[in-house]
Amino acid sequence: MTSWMFWLYVAGFISALVFLYDTLLPLKPATDIQGLILLIRGAALAVAALAMTLGGVMAHMGTSRNSHGMARFGRYTMILGAMLLICMALWSLHGRYRFTLLKSYPSLETSVLSAKAFENRDIAAIHELGRRKDAKAVKILSDIAAREDYHLSLRIAAISSLGSIGDSTSRDSLDELIKSLEGAGKTANDKNSGTENSDGKSAINRDYLLRECRQAIEKITHN
């Protein structure tokens, strides 16, 4: 085994330990999906480590027996396994560093959550924004609550999150949303007056949203 192969083997071994540590850190998965991810990561680690180990053994045996085919196949297998382990370790470190970076800079974390909530329509990110006490979170939540093309559950979650923030800005946003919803309801009633084809679903959705807005304002008032 040449010197560069030896150091590649060492790097692969260290990478395997890093990836193993990052994989086993959540020893008790909270959900089924976390358990599945743990299983997949463990299987990937086992395959890459086995390829690197067996490849190194085959390369050594091929060299000692003067079998060039076995030595070449072993080297390629070992290199592939080691590179996979190094890539997996770098991926784990990147994820952990990104998480630490976001926690260190709350405004950056709010930006990431805002993108998830507004563009990906992630309801978990909407609820998480409700724990942020800044104007950007209020702005994004207000925009989501006012969007008629968003699902009702997302809009209700945004209203609830505004109530969780509980400052004067979120209160003003809820007041504006109530005025907007009441105005839309009045316009719809005027448009449909004298006809039998009123938009029942939109009216029900407006009632739900108005009720949630009033409950959120009541929550802010009591807090």
UniProtKB/TrEMBL annotation:
Keyword entries, A-Z: Membrane, Transmembrane, Transmembrane helix
Gene3D superfamilies (UniProt xref): Leucine-rich Repeat Variant
Q: Check the record and name the InterPro entries matching this protein.
A: ARM-like
Q: Does Phosphoprotein show up as a keyword for this record?
A: no
The protein's matches in Pfam families, at most eight in alphabetical order, are given as: HEAT_2
* Keyword Nucleotidyltransferase assigned: no
Q: Report TM segments.
A: 6-24, 36-61, 73-93
Q: Which domain of life is it from?
A: Bacteria
Task: Give the protein's recorded name.
Answer: HEAT repeat domain-containing protein
